[in-house]
Write a structure and sequence with these properties.
By secondary structure, chain A is mainly α. Chain A contains eight helices and no strands. The chains are: A mainly alpha, B mainly alpha.
Chain lengths: ~230, ~210
């Protein structure tokens, strides 16, 4: 049975958890109204669009590139691109989909540039994982949670960008696969395949890092050998 | 125990990455996986490992709350430097005037209800007087009845006595129905001030000594 193109009807996608910041009703109609006003020269309308969508745009970027500062720069650039091509907006589509597509593409380009920079500045093609000092005092729960979050981000970062994008949009943003397909510019079947494969690759890499850390904590410390980016050639 | 050559195990293993998600697998396929996991320890172990890894990933949602964010200022500055927006921000109606407008609008919403309540109140007053068989409210207030006070003088019978008593007939009924505390239950003093019974003078039948 092919899990990517199920023979049975597609299960309903969960609703996207959109939280407008300005308290006004969100949605395509409201966004389209603002876009029309912005096209007519209403600066306040575009400001409202920015304020409504900035949190999620930055969040998506940060979950992809890992850095808050880079994420803000990318989200800012995405809004600038939106403004420059506002006249060409297709009212058949949702504004959020358009914006998230630009953010995701910018983040993927950023990841590829950074990867290229790593490959030319390091011998092994990636940063070593900082293992915890076994002699250090036991960290608090908060620190443990911070450490776990850091390891999860590193594991995500070890995947190829197109898997990262689908995992972040599906697992962290809880967007439906149909919406993700529009954002990443792929078919629905491709998105489901990337989700399936991305989860498997994440699990394999996560378990590999856990085994290494367990070995390091038990006294058999050895440096983590970075692997080729999972799914890079796929 | 997982059976490597069992096609059902292979099929379920293939479905597990989507099965562990939130609604990523259809109901029929989900049921197939669920039934198989209940009877196959090997596949159940695989599913548990997939759930563990995904839980670690999804826990990152808790770290996704962004801090104070205002992208508009740098975006506006960039657009102004490109000449796409003016140097000055668009005029905004002041916050104070917006707040005043909001308050006025909120009050205006209650206006019909308040008018209706006032009309009902006036109607109730008139009807109450008619049912009691009382004379119409005179233009001049009726002098308040006086009762003997403890020091030999006279004191008003109640704060509602006089002209208002006609307007509030239920106050009269309340006073008439008020009974003194039964013997043994009546407090003798409050905060050191002795109490004495004046059942005819106050609605509750008790008053502080010396109070007028």
């Amino acid at each position: 049975m092919d899990p990517y193109s199920p023979a049975e009807p597609e299960p309903p996608d969960p609703p996207a958890a959109e939280t407008p910041e300005d308290g006004r009703p969100s949605g395509d109609d409201s966004d389209h109204h603002l876009i029309r006003a912005a096209q007519g020269g209403d600066e306040r309308a575009f400001e409202a669009l920015v304020r409504r969508h900035q949190q999620r745009a930055v969040r998506i970027a940060r979950n992809l590139v890992g850095s808050e500062e880079d994420a803000r720069d990318l989200a800012q650039e995405a809004f600038l691109r939106v403004f420059r091509s506002l006249e060409r907006f297709d009212f058949q589509h949702a504004f959020a989909t358009w914006l998230h597509r630009i953010v995701t593409n910018l983040a993927i380009d950023h990841l590829r540039r950074r990867r290229l920079a790593f490959s030319t500045t390091t011998e092994d093609g990636g940063p070593d994982v900082e293992l915890p000092d076994p002699d250090a005092p036991a960290p608090s729960r908060r620190l443990e949670a911070v450490e776990t979050a850091r390891r999860v981000r590193e594991t995500i970062a070890s995947l190829a960008p197109h898997f990262q994008a689908v995992l972040v949009l599906r697992e962290l943003e809880n967007l439906p696969c149909t919406e993700i397909a529009r954002i990443v510019g792929a078919t629905h079947v491709t998105v489901r395949w990337r989700l399936h494969r991305g989860r498997k690759l994440f699990q394999e890499e996560w378990e590999r890092r856990e085994r290494l850390e367990a070995g390091a904590n038990s006294g058999a410390a050895r440096p983590v050998q970075p692997v080729r980016k999972a799914g890079e050639a796929e | 125990m997982k059976h490597p050559n069992d096609p059902l195990c292979t099929q379920v293993e293939n479905l597990i990455p989507l099965y562990v998600g939130e609604g990523d697998l259809g109901p029929q396929q989900s049921a197939l996986v669920r039934e198989h996991l209940a009877s196959c320890a090997g596949c159940a172990e695989s599913a548990e490992a997939a759930v563990r890894a995904r839980s670690a990933l999804v826990a990152l949602r808790d770290w996704s709350a962004s801090h104070e964010l205002d992208l508009w200022k740098p975006i506006r500055a960039a657009l102004a430097s490109e000449g796409r927006l003016g140097r000055q921000s668009a005029p905004v109606r002041s916050t104070a005037s917006k707040a005043t407008w909001r308050r006025t609008a909120a009050l205006a919403r209650w206006l019909p209800a308040a008018a209706a309540a006032a009309a009902l109140f006036a109607f109730a007053l008139v009807m109450g007087d008619r049912q009691e068989g009382a004379a119409p409210i005179p233009a001049a207030p009726i002098p308040a009845p006086r009762v003997a006070s403890g020091d030999g003088g006279e004191a008003p019978a109640s704060p509602f006595a006089g002209g208002l008593r006609r307007a509030f007939p239920w106050e009269e009924r309340l006073r008439d129905s008020a009974q003194p505390f039964p013997a043994g239950f009546a407090p003798e003093a409050v905060h050191g001030v002795p109490l004495r019974a004046t059942p005819a003078a106050t609605p509750v039948g008790w008053s502080l000594a010396g109070q007028r």
